[in-house]
User: Which sequence fits this backbone?
């Protein structure tokens, strides 16, 4: 029902993203998707990786402050209105979207993926499934 997302808290300074991406690469972790939320002094790097537990161990060993959190991974048609269908389902239930990011799957698939955190994840998953929207498992999302 949920996938694991790695959050890394980082200083907002030149080169920091390069350092973190090198730590992950040297640790054998493959990044599948990412999002960065920043403020003046710090940022939160949210990642979907091929092995979340390994990524967390590698980052912590390097002294990074991290957290593994639950997120919802949705597969939807890559077409006009695909995103609107998902958002209307969540809005009708009065569930708040705290943050999200998206990416396209390989070109031959015609699918898009949304990674989302909501105010009520279990209810959101249930309602989305009832509407026929595909919720991806960790095994599915980590290997895209």
Assistant:
């Amino acid at each position: 029902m949920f996938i694991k997302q790695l959050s890394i808290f980082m200083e907002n300074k030149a080169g920091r993203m390069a350092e973190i991406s090198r730590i992950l690469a040297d640790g054998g972790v493959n990044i599948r998707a990412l999002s960065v939320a920043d403020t003046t002094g710090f940022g939160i790097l949210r990642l979907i990786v091929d092995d979340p537990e390994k990524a967390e161990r590698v980052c912590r060993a390097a002294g990074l402050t991290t957290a593994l959190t639950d997120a919802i991974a949705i597969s939807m048609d890559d077409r006009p209105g695909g995103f609107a269908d998902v958002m209307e389902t969540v809005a009708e239930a009065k569930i708040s979207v705290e943050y999200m990011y998206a990416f396209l799957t390989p070109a031959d698939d015609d699918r898009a993926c949304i990674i989302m955190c909501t105010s009520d994840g279990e209810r959101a998953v249930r309602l989305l499934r009832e509407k026929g929207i595909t919720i991806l498992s960790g095994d599915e999302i980590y290997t895209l």
